[in-house]
């Protein structure tokens, strides 16, 4: 059984402690793909920031309005984040933007528990097809924690 509670949100916040260490990454490595046909470290950080922003600007307002969560096409959404990372934004600024966005999202999640725990649909589906767990924003944060771990492991392989 998956444990979904306040600690899920605090784990999401804790990831920023690790991303702080990425300020030490060589600038030459920042925009180099981590593997063939893969994103760079900078693109991954931009990608994570973009999803956090999407939760703040689109998902949370939708839940408050009594609607389900609707996620866009992942590839085109991620391409926007990758382009931003390559736009000339500095490594430190992108890391700062990621951290500020993540901390803003965590603050909202901790303050608005009725939104976080409310059962909702995701793209019209009520339960996760892999686990059978009813969807809620908290469950999405749980999945995003796994997503963070995946990207952390990718980055650790190259730094």
Describe this structure in words.
It is built from 7 helices and no strands. The protein is an all-alpha fold and 159 residues long. The longest helix is centred in the first third of the chain and has 24 residues, at 41-64.
The helix/strand order is HHHHHHH
Total strands? 0
Uncertain spans, ≥5 residues at pLDDT below 50? none
Main beta sheet: strand number and arrangement? none
Shape: globular
Percent strand:
under 5%
* Count of separate DSSP helical elements: 7
Approximate helicity band = 55-70%
Radius of gyration using CA atoms only: 16 Å
Task: State the secondary-structure class.
Answer: mainly alpha
What can be said about this structure in brief?
With 159 residues, this protein is mainly α.
Task: Sum up the structure in keywords.
159 residues, 0% strand, mainly alpha
Write the layout of secondary structure elements.
Elements: H1 6-20, H2 27-30, H3 41-64, H4 74-85, H5 91-111, H6 113-117, H7 137-156
């Amino acid at each position: 059984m998956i444990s979904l509670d306040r600690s899920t949100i605090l784990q999401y916040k804790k990831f920023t402690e690790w991303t702080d260490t990425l300020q030490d990454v060589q600038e030459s490595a920042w925009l180099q793909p981590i593997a063939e046909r893969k994103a760079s470290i900078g693109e991954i950080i931009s990608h994570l920031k973009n999803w956090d922003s999407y939760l703040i600007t689109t998902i949370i307002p939708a839940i408050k309005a009594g609607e389900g969560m609707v996620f866009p096409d992942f590839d085109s959404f991620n391409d926007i984040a990758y382009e931003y990372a390559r736009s000339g934004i500095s490594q430190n600024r992108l890391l700062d933007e990621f951290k500020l966005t993540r901390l803003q999202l965590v603050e909202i999640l901790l303050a608005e528990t009725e939104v976080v725990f409310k059962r909702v649909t995701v793209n019209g589906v009520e339960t996760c097809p892999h686990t059978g767990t009813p969807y809620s924003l908290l469950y999405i944060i749980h999945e995003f924690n796994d997503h963070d771990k995946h990207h952390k492991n990718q980055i650790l392989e190259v730094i």
